[in-house]
């Protein structure tokens, strides 16, 4: 038996032993677990493998490298001469290997021996496999983690809290500061205590499966001065007594009874480190930007009676007055059927004219799922994503380890950004899960006056979505670089390189035109249209209108400066921005595309394409699929010998040359332009290259035939000792 047969038998025996032992362990050692236990086992196995790949293996290789560096092995002795009848020195085995190498030499012609080009194609193939695998795994991860119910949940909550209904009033109908407590009583107290029975005390009037988590938090921001400064407002952060009385006095029973002094104490400085990092943002209001970690807070109770006492107390001591800038109503809802937590923030801004501007903001996140509730598909996708990220990180750091100068490359810097974004995504997911878990435990022991704040995991969820978006964008750009082997991508890249100055100038012209039109529209129509109140908002509105998004802007919004001026602005936006400048931009791109294509066609290179390289590099793999899908050619004798068929074919070619049939068929198939392609004269370099390849091909075929003849000679006319047999033995064999 040959070595391959022995190796195959050894592999089969080893595989059978391992499979039998694994089957016996699964049957007799209690692998028939519950779903949660089985998933815990899978997670544990993955954690162990992940620890081995990321921590244990590097430590092992560091120890081995130190050992090899400090205590090198002695020089190996010379190997003893092998026996004469050894299989390694068998002439037939050597000839078979040589025959296989000659067959591959037929594929590797002169143009396939460009070492620099082959190394480039090999790197492209590795990057193509790595990044496409990473991109598709990331795509499936996003599909598995997206929940379409959150959109419908947000839309439903905005509708219920914004408009009036038969049982309560909507926030859009609050027009004065004095109506705020009536709205709180009607929409946030009565509706969540709709059922009076003991087992339905938390039900909502519009949804029995939706429960309020904790209590409602009222937070107001107050101006430090009574001047309503719109340029740089300063918010109050002083300590007050009830009724906003000064000076502030600390009483000995302040912490022992009901928190009657909390609504008069600022929350500045009472937040922890997590809040200072995650919740340190400003609300974008209609009038001002309102900080989240400032203001005065009052908490309602769970029951209606206690909540009404708190509202009466705040009303009696004028907790809301003329100095109030904005009031926020924060609460969290939990939908048990959809397993969704909704974080609601209702905002009312007081204007200098006595009215209020309402706003409703709802954000939904998925509640933390246990392992037995997580589907196997989601678990599998997440595990594959982590494995692919580890492979990507390993390939990146190996590249930098062996060639540190590559860090100057822009693409390697982009790979480092992708690695950092993946790391941040994993950290955000872990922190969000930890925060949700801690909030759930806190919810179990919370009392009647605790405000359970789920906005921190909601903020991390929003940050995670932003990181996903940037990660997909940068990965797509990185794949763009890999696809540069294609002529189409080369043309486009060349076009951008040639046209970056004209494109930049055209973009600056478009930007200046947009700025001028937006300032004009904001100056003339800003006092009468919401779309032109602020200059930045005016720019966005004009860009949307110029590119065809006309559902939000109507011509009437531009007519506040007069009919004719409005028609002029409307026509200028519709013609100059959307037609003239955009067409100039596209025409410029088209001209440079033509130039880049002509440059590419002029520079003809005698080199292989990427797909030709892949066809030779992965010859066995490609042949496997080609043999499956490609029909096998069968020789049809037609009751004639091979010599007769060849003679018949030669006689037909004399009557009608093959070149004429080829040209006629090519003309009919590709059109009359095919004749022009045939008339194109090849340059001398290409002709010399093709001539050398034909000569090399013929020599290789000769070597293959000689090797096959020698193998046949040794199989037929030699014995096992490599000696020619006698004539008697030859006659017997014949």
Mean pLDDT: 78
Classify the beta-strand content into a percent band. 5-15%
Low-confidence stretches: 84-89, 658-681
Principal-axes shape call? elongated
Task: Please identify the structural class as seen in this structure.
Answer: alpha+beta
Task: Calculate the terminal CA-CA distance, rounded to whole Å.
Answer: 26 Å
The beta-strand count equals 8
Order of helices and strands: HHHHHHEEHEEEHEEEHHHHHHHHHHHHHH
Q: Helix segment count?
A: 22
Helix content: 55-70%
Please state the CA-atom Rg, rounded to the nearest Å: 39 Å
Largest sheet: 6 strands, antiparallel
Describe the 3D structure:
The chain has 734 residues and is an alpha+beta fold. Among the domains are: 138 residues; 217 residues, no CATH class; 108 residues; 44 residues, no CATH class. Helix content is 58%, strand content 8%. The strands form 2 sheets. Strands 1, 2, 5, 6, 7 and 8 form a 6-stranded antiparallel beta sheet that branches. It has a two-stranded antiparallel sheet with strand order 3-4. Strand 1 and strand 2 form a beta hairpin. Helix 10 runs antiparallel to helix 11. The radius of gyration is 39 Å and the shape is elongated.
Keywords:
single chain, 734 residues, alpha+beta, 6-stranded antiparallel β-sheet, two-stranded antiparallel ribbon, elongated
How would you summarize the topology of this molecule?
Layout: H1 3-28, H2 35-70, H3 91-107, H4 115-145, H5 149-162, H6 180-190, E1 203-204, E2 207-222, H7 273-278, E3 282-284, E4 289-291, E5 296-299, H8 304-316, E6 324-335, E7 340-350, E8 356-366, H9 376-402, H10 410-444, H11 455-482, H12 487-498, H13 500-525, H14 535-546, H15 563-602, H16 610-617, H17 619-629, H18 642-655, H19 658-670, H20 673-679, H21 684-717, H22 727-733
Antiparallel strand pairs: 1-2, 2-5, 2-6, 3-4, 6-7, 7-8
Helix pairs in contact: 3-21, 4-9, 4-11, 6-8, 9-10, 10-11, 12-15, 13-14, 13-15, 19-20
């Amino acid at each position: 038996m040959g070595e391959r047969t022995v190796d195959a038998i050894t592999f089969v025996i080893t595989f059978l032993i391992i499979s039998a032992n694994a089957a016996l362990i699964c049957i007799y050692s209690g692998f028939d677990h519950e779903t949660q236990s089985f998933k815990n086992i899978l997670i544990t196995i993955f954690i162990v493998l992940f620890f081995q790949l990321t921590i244990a293996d590097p430590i092992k290789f560091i120890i081995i490298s130190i050992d090899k560096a400090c205590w090198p092995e002695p020089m190996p002795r010379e190997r003893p001469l092998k026996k004469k009848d050894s299989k390694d020195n068998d002439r037939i085995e050597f000839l078979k290997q040589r025959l296989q190498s000659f067959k591959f030499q037929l594929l590797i012609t002169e143009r396939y021996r460009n070492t620099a080009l082959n190394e480039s194609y090999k790197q492209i193939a590795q990057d193509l496999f790595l990044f496409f695998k990473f991109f598709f795994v990331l795509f499936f991860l996003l599909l598995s983690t997206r929940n379409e119910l959150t959109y419908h949940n947000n839309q439903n909550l905005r509708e219920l809290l914004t408009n009036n209904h038969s049982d309560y009033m909507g926030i859009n109908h609050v027009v004065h500061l004095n109506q705020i407590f009536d709205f709180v009583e009607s929409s946030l107290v009565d509706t969540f205590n709709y059922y009076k029975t003991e087992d339905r005390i938390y039900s909502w009037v519009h949804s029995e499966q939706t429960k309020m988590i904790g209590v409602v938090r009222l937070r107001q921001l107050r101006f430090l001065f009574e001047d309503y400064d719109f340029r740089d407002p300063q918010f109050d952060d002083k300590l007050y007594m009830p009724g906003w009385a000064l000076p502030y006095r600390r009483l000995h029973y302040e912490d022992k009874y009901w928190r009657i002094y909390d609504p008069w104490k600022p929350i500045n400085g009472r937040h922890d480190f997590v809040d200072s990092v995650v919740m340190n943002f400003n609300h974008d209001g209609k009038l001002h930007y309102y900080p989240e970690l400032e203001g005065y807070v009052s908490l309602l109770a769970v029951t209606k009676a206690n909540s009404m006492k708190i509202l009466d107390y705040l009303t009696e001591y004028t907790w809301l007055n003329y100095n109030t800038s904005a009031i926020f109503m924060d609460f969290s809802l939990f939908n048990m059927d959809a397993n969704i937590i909704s974080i609601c923030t209702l905002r009312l801004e007081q204007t200098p004219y006595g009215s209020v501007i309402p706003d409703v903001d709802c954000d939904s996140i998925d509640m933390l799922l246990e392992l037995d509730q997580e589907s196997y598909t989601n678990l599998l996708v997440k595990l594959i994503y982590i494995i692919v990220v580890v492979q990507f990180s390993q390939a990146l750091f190996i590249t930098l380890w062996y060639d540190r100068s590559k860090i100057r490359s822009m693409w390697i810097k982009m790979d480092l950004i992708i690695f950092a974004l993946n790391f941040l995504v994993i950290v955000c997911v872990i922190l969000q899960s930890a925060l949700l878990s801690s909030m759930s435990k806190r919810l179990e022991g919370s009392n009647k006056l605790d405000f359970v704040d789920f906005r921190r995991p909601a903020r991390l969820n929003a940050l995670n979505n932003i990181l996903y978006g940037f990660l997909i964008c940068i990965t797509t750009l990185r794949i763009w670089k890999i696809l540069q082997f294609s002529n189409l991508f080369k043309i486009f890249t060349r076009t951008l390189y040639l046209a970056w100055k004209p494109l930049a100038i055209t973009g600056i012209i478009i930007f200046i035109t947009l700025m001028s039109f937006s300032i004009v529209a904001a100056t003339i129509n800003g006092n009468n249209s919401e779309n032109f109140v602020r200059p930045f908002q005016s720019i966005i509105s004009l860009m949307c209108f110029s590119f065809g998004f006309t559902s939000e802007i109507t011509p009437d919004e531009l007519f506040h400066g007069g009919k004719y001026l409005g028609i002029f602005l409307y026509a200028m936006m519709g013609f100059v921005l959307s037609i003239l400048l955009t067409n100039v931009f596209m025409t410029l791109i088209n001209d440079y595309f033509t130039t880049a294509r002509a440059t590419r066609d002029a520079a003809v290179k005698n080199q292989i394409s990427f797909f030709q390289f892949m066809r030779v590099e992965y010859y066995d793999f490609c042949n496997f699929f080609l043999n499956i899908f490609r029909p096998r050619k069968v020789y049809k004798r037609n009751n004639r010998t091979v010599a007769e068929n060849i003679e018949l074919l030669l006689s037909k070619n004399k009557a009608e040359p093959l070149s004429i049939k080829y040209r006629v068929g090519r003309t009919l198939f590709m059109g009359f332009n095919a004749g022009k392609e045939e008339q194109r004269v090849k340059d001398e370099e290409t002709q010399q290259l093709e001539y050398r390849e034909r000569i090399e091909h013929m020599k290789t075929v000769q070597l293959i035939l000689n090797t096959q003849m020698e193998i046949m000679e040794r199989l037929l006319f030699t014995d096992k000792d490599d000696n020619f047999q006698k004539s008697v033995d030859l006659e017997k064999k014949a």
